[in-house]
Design brief:
Elements (H helix, E strand, L loop, with lengths): L6 H14 L20 E3 L23 E8 L5 E6 L5 E5 L4 E5 L6 E6 L11 E6 L3 H4 L1 E7 L4 E7 L14 E7 L10 E3 L5 E4 L18 E5 L16 E4 L4 E6 L5 E5 L5 E6 L25 E4 L5 E7 L2 E6 L5 E7 L2 E2 L4 E3 L7 E6 L4 E6 L15 E6 L1
Antiparallel strand pairs: 1-18, 2-26, 3-4, 4-5, 5-6, 7-8, 8-9, 9-10, 11-12, 12-13, 13-14, 15-16, 16-17, 17-18, 19-20, 20-21, 21-22, 21-23, 24-25, 25-26
Length: 393
């Protein structure tokens, strides 16, 4: 069922949020990213190469060009944020504000709370955020979570025991990494295991812009860790978890078919970005936002006015990066060819489901898409929030 968002609802919501949201927040309150309103995406070019295993030279197959909603998988979710597909096809989804993890049966839509993560402090853009399954989940049954506490942002892993009663299936969290700066805004939060089986985490600068350029700080970075939370072997800076820096607020991580890492990033007033990530590279914030002429900083693969994106999750499928937009209330397709965009980004589902938080590959030509209307900046309607199944055509 497609939920059409009435224009008048969006206008009223935007007017309300102008009164309540601060101008430095990211996630799509009208005050969140008050920049450009021209409405078109602007693709930019970068030179090769990025990410740890980017050695392949063969061309990817031509990208498919459209997407359609196959069905609504489930409804009635509260502040959903992270999504982790289980081996049997079901999904784990986190609730940012409630600090819980829920299992969703993708055949029936049934929701079962598996447990609550203790110590979560939900305020502003913080709370229980990204989820990822251990690369060895089949044997160790570990679920990783990125979350905000009273003192910091951190990553912990928990044993998931399906045989236990509902609500009691999560073991006590074992913190593997701590000390990421927290704030009311810009907490980052996306985590993902890469093709190298290392754990990547996107962090924000917590509103303190100077942290992004400070390589000794964990804020405004992409981190690369072992599953135990140690700096991963081969990182660009000795004994450091920092993989790239100069980021404002990273909430999307995905690898393409050549194992190159891409990341989405919130801009402030002018440009949101999709970046191809190179180890040790500087992505410019706060000295640069969007494409620029300073060769000390990496230029984005594509950029958008902040009204059109405010990007959170990204996924790779069928030759393109797919990027969920919060304030933009649309799903962006960025077709890739080598290390550049093959064509201008295209927008889908504009205004149909409201704010879009997370998009995850479901394998082949399928995607899972999570809406974000109940996060305090949307205009929730009946059924919000929901998970959708999409097909790339």
């Amino acid at each position: 069922m497609i939920v059409q968002r009435r224009a008048v609802t969006a206008v009223l919501a935007a007017a309300t949020l102008l009164l309540t949201a601060g101008c430095s927040s990211d996630e799509g309150g009208a005050g969140g990213d008050p920049g450009g309103s021209s409405g078109s995406a602007s693709p930019d070019r970068t030179s090769p190469d990025s990410s740890p295993s980017a050695q392949a030279t063969e061309e990817a197959p031509p990208a498919k060009g459209s997407v359609k909603v196959v069905r609504t998988v489930t409804e009635g979710l509260k502040t959903p944020w992270g999504l982790a597909p289980l081996p049997d096809g079901d999904l784990l989804v986190s609730s940012r504000d409630e600090g819980t993890i829920t299992r969703v049966d993708t055949e029936t839509g049934k929701k079962t709370e598996v447990g609550e993560v203790p110590g979560v402090s939900a305020a502003g853009e913080g709370g229980l955020l990204g989820l990822a399954l251990s690369p060895d989940f089949a044997s160790d049954h570990m679920v990783y979570a990125y979350f905000t506490t009273e003192s910091d942002n951190r990553v912990a892993r928990m044993l998931y025991e399906e045989e236990k009663p509902a609500g009691e299936q999560l073991g006590a969290p074992n913190t593997v990494f701590r000390g990421i700066p927290k704030g009311y805004i810009h907490n980052g939060g996306r985590i993902a295991f890469g093709p190298d089986k290392m754990l990547y985490a996107g962090t924000g600068e917590s509103g303190d812009t100077g942290l992004a350029q400070d390589k000794a700080s964990l804020g405004g970075k992409i981190l690369r860790l072992t599953p135990e939370g140690e700096p991963a072997p081969g990182n660009p800076f000795p004994d450091s978890p920092v993989y790239s820096y100069g980021h404002r607020n990273v909430q999307g991580l995905a690898w393409d078919s050549k194992q190159r890492l891409f990341a989405s990033e919130f801009g402030q007033d002018t440009w949101d970005e999709l970046n191809q990530i190179k180890p040790g590279a500087n992505y410019g914030w706060p000295e640069a936002e969007g494409k620029g002429a300073d060769t000390a900083f990496q230029n984005p693969v594509a950029q958008w006015h902040t009204d059109d994106a405010s990007p959170s999750g990204i996924a790779y499928a069928e030759g393109s990066i797919w990027m969920a937009g919060l304030k933009g209330q649309r799903l962006w397709r960025v077709p890739l060819k080598g290390t550049e965009t093959a064509a201008d980004p295209q927008a889908f589902l504009e205004g149909e489901y409201g704010r879009l938080r997370t998009v995850v590959s479901a394998g082949g030509d399928k995607l899972w898409l999570v809406t974000s209307e109940t996060d305090g900046r949307g205009s929730p309607e009946g059924g919000d929030d929901r998970i959708l199944e999409l097909q790339v055509t």
